[in-house]
Description:
This protein has strands at 28-30, 35-40, 43-48, 53-59, 66-71, 77-82, 87-91, 96-101, 108-113, 120-125, 130-134, 143-145, 152-157, 164-169, 174-178, 186-188, 195-200, 207-212, 218-223, 228-234, 239-244, 251-255. By secondary structure, it is mostly beta strands. The chain has 2 domains: 23-146, Methylamine Dehydrogenase, Chain H (7 Propeller); 157-260, Methylamine Dehydrogenase, Chain H (7 Propeller). It has a 4-stranded antiparallel β-sheet, with no helix packed on it. Strands 5-6-7-8 form a 4-stranded antiparallel β-sheet, with no helix packed on it.
Amino acid sequence: MKPRKxxxxxxxxxxxxxxxxxxxxxxxxxxxxNILAVALDSSxxxxxxxTSTVHELCDIGExxxxxxxxxxxxxxxxSVGTKSGQVxxxxxxxxxxxxxxxxxxxxxxxxxxxxxxxxxxxxGSKDKSILVRDLRAHNSSYMKLSDHRQEVCGLRWxxxxxxxxxxxxxxxxxxxxSATSDKPLEKFSDHQAAVxxxxxxxxxxxxLATGGGTADQCIRFWxxxxxxxxxxxxxxSQVCNLVFSKTNDELVSTHGYSLN
Length: 260
C-alpha cells in the first residue's frame, strides 16, 4: 500500500490556557455533531469545527476541577467528571445540568457512554472503582466494578452488539467486562505501564487497541471475542490516545513526547 501524505503542520491551533498537564485525565472529546469539548481547569468550552465559534458550557466553581469529559452517542449530552468525585450530565442545547451523580470518593478521570444502550454510562475514578449506571433510573443505583488496584484512567464501550467494556488503569492492567456482570471476562497484564489509551475499531467487531505509558510505550491489539492478543507495536513513546478511522483500516495515536 502506498503511504499517505500527511501535512506536517496543523491546519488549526486552539489556545487552551488552564488545560491541565496530567496524563491520567481525559480533558478533550469530539462529538458526533463536530463539536470539540475541552476542559480548562473548572470550565468546559466548546469549539464548533463547522463554524469555528467558541462557547463556554459551564464553570463548576473554583473549589472543584473538571477531570474528564465524554459526549453521548448523538452529541446531545456531555458527561463531566470532577475532582470531587461527581459525574455531571449536561444538556448542551439548553446549557443546563440535568443530573448530578454521586458515588465516587476521588476524582473521576474517565467516562464512557454505552453504544448499545445509550442511557448507560460508566465512570472510572482514582478511588480504583468503575460505576456503571442507567440514567433511565430515577434513583442513584449503580453496578460497581472493583478489580483495579489503582486509578482507572481509560474506559471504552465496544461499538458492536457484544456490548463489552474495556478498562485500563494505573495498575498496568486491562480488563474486559460484560455489561451484565461485575466480574471481568478477562484480565490482561501485558502492558508495563498505565493503560489510558483505549479504542475499538468501528470496522471490525471485537478489535480493540490499547496503549501503555512511559515505561511501556506499546500499542497492543486484541480480539475480545476470543480474548486473545493479536499484535504489539513498540512506538518508542508514551501512548496518550488512540483513534480508529471510520472508513479505513488506520489508527491514529498521540504521544507524550516526540517519537525516537
